[in-house]
Amino acid sequence: MSATETLTLAEAHELAVAALVASNTAPDVAESVAQALVAAEADGQSGHGLSRVPSYAGQARSGKVNGHAVPKLEDVTPALFRVDACDGFAYPAFDMVIQHLPGRAHKLGIAMAAVRRSHHFGQAGAHCEKLAEHGLAAFVYGNAPKSIAPWGGRTPLFGTNPIAFAAPAGKGRAPLIIDLAVSRVAKGKIMAAEKAGKSIPEGWALDPDGNPTTDASAAMAGTMIPIGEAKGAALAMMVEVMSAAMVGASLAFEAPSLFTSEGPVLNLGQTIIAIDPELVSGGLFGERMDTLLDTVAAEDGARLPGSRRLAARQKATAEGLSIPVPILDEIRQIIAVA
């Protein structure tokens, strides 16, 4: 097991910004990206955290992602707009979505944004959470490069294609967040394990020959196992429709790897739907949510979705982040050679 080093959230943020700026990324873009990566690390989602910095930095240097891109908003209807990420990082595009979507959803009851020419968008639930803080229920769909085979096949055609949902929870509770990849784990967790020199649990992935593996490198070269077997593969295809076909983005099997520096831009897609639940329910939503969550919380042994994320966030704020030294060494090397 590799050694770790503890950083404060501020130190981790500064380190990520420095590596990205040293890698042909504009300072304001680097700030947006670093904020998202450190938040993921704090939430216990290391696969979307600092382990992404080296690949992001390498892609910015090579031009696989445009570190200076400024997203552009295009109105389609009062309830629908598109954001062109301009082959840049997804996070500034999502910052624009969060700025413009709530007002439309509250006015119209439901509104939608489509992000195209995008990149890896990290913790899907984090974007939903921001919308829930505006009093909205929200869905986020996003596709990723191929890593899951259609059920019964062996060739990967779908990504891990995350789905996230959030809703206001009432009674001073944090928003309800449900965030899942259609694979048994997000591929970023395997990448993080590989960088840290760790094995992975059996049941996460198959090697290139289709055999179960605990070797992270073999898993990265192989395929991911979907949740719920055939049902998970079907969900992956649904997300592919919602986030790639719907948006006009690259399909999973057309997109290059998110983990290598070389190659063309990814042109991934994301769809965000926001709903005003009080408007839809005629003001009954808050009471119904209180009843639902109180009942679930009262069940012996039950755990509300997102509770581990909140506990990890509180611990990280108080105690800092424990980061594998090999990941920090790689990030610091990027800064040193700039």
UniProtKB/TrEMBL annotation:
Recorded GO MF terms: oxidoreductase activity
This protein's name: Sulfolactate dehydrogenase
Pfam families associated with the record: Ldh_2
Family: Belongs to the LDH2/MDH2 oxidoreductase family.
PANTHER family for the chain: MALATE DEHYDROGENASE, OXIDOREDUCTASE-RELATED
UniProtKB keywords: Oxidoreductase
